[in-house]
Amino acid sequence: MNLILCSRLILRLRPSASILMSFFIIMTGLRVKAQTHSPVLTVREDMPVIDITVKQVIYGNGVFLACLIYPTRLYKSVDGVSWSKIAGPNLGSDTNISDYKQHPSLAYGAGRFVLASDSGRIFSSPDLLTWTRSTSGTRQNIIAVKYLDSIFYAVGDSATFLSSPDGVNWTAQHTGTGDTTGSYQEIIYGNGRLIITAYNHMFDSSAIEVFYDRTGGTAGPWTTDSTRASYRLTRRKHPDPLRRSRPRNAAANFQ
Fold first, then answer.
1. Which of 27, 57, 93, 125 has CA 20 to 30 A from 107's CA?
2. φ and ψ at 203, to 5 degrees?
3. Residue 64 near residue 56 (C-beta atoms within 8 A)
4. What is the pLDDT of residues 78-137, one digit of tens each?
5. How many domains does the chain have?
């Protein structure tokens, strides 16, 4: 509707009707303006692989780094659109753990990319070209690695808990509470608290999720809360949903 015609129509209406018509025109204008400036969401599926699971994508030093599993592969991108495969570290030839069974975790901080995986392997790289293996001091599977509050942390099976200031030198930490055979699944930081989520295995068929948190550094004090969530696991040896057999035909459909 032409604004000049609208203005003449408003002048001819009674005051109450004039007010309503003015409100209608204003709201219509705002709606058109909002629609004009709405962001456009573009969905892209440019990862050059088929039937392989994308486990994680991180960003650091101007580069996106993606970790794919079944089998394990690393890809990088500077814009999130065009991806290229890169040569990652040697994950399993020395322990006969194939790439199909690896579930690496990625983090970036302090100028380094860090990759942690099964059997206590931790690697770091400043440029995604050369990778250096660190001495982790454990043979347990590392499930998650994070860069939180200027410190790298790695957690995993059998209450594995490591910290590092640079992603190269690692020190074993202990909460001093909870089940020492529990599997630490995730670690997060916020509001001055470091929180670890874990599964405590019970009779190999059930587990309960527990939380450890601190307010005064990795040394503690740590407390246990096993009442927030619980559920049963049936005929599963590991609670991590990604730790399962690889999809069918995955070997025939990767680059």
1. 93
2. 60, 25
3. no
4. 999 999 999 999 887 655 566 667 889 999 999 999 999 988 999 999 999 999 999 999
5. 2
Residue 189 CA to residue 146 CA, distance in Å, equals: 10
Q: Which domain holds residue 95?
A: 53-242
Decide if 255 is inside a domain.
no
CB burial of 29-60 (b: ≥16 within 10 Å; e: otherwise) equals eeeeeeeeeeeeeeeeeebebeebeebbebeb
This prediction's pTM: 0.70
Q: What is the CATH number of the domain that holds 117?
A: 2.120.10.80
* Residues 32 and 57 reside in one and the same domain: no
- For helices 15-36 and 3-12, the axis angle rounded to 10 degrees is 160
Assess if residue 164 is contained within a domain: yes
Alpha carbon separation from 3 to 25, 28, 30, 36 (Å, rounded): 9, 12, 14, 19
Six token digits for residue 115: 């990759």
